[in-house]
Amino acid sequence: MSVQLRQIVNARRLVGDRVVDALEPVERNAHAVAIDAANLVGVVLQAHTDAKLPPSAGMEALTLLSEASHLAAQSRAKLGAAHDLLRSVAKQYGIVHAGPPYCPPNEVGDVPHFTGA
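User: That's the sequence. What structure does it adopt?
Assistant: Structure tokens below.
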């Protein structure tokens, strides 16, 4: 194997590991944020009811929280879609990494069809 080819193979091995190491915590955190944001909307709604507030009280804030929850779920879904595309790139270019078949495709949960709270 030529020195140049060896360098390319080594670089592809390193880039695969670097991407896997960077992507995994981002996916995990995005999943947790989507769950927490959806839960927060429920907590605020229940607190609103428990406090017997007028129906319109705090609705602007609740709308913003609901939108944030929706965006968090979309973010998680987009990260999952990007992960799938990165797998394809790795396969196409022979990038060796700790991904498939070693990591399951939806390790932290599958939410690609979820569009928000």
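The chain is about 70% helix and 0% strand.
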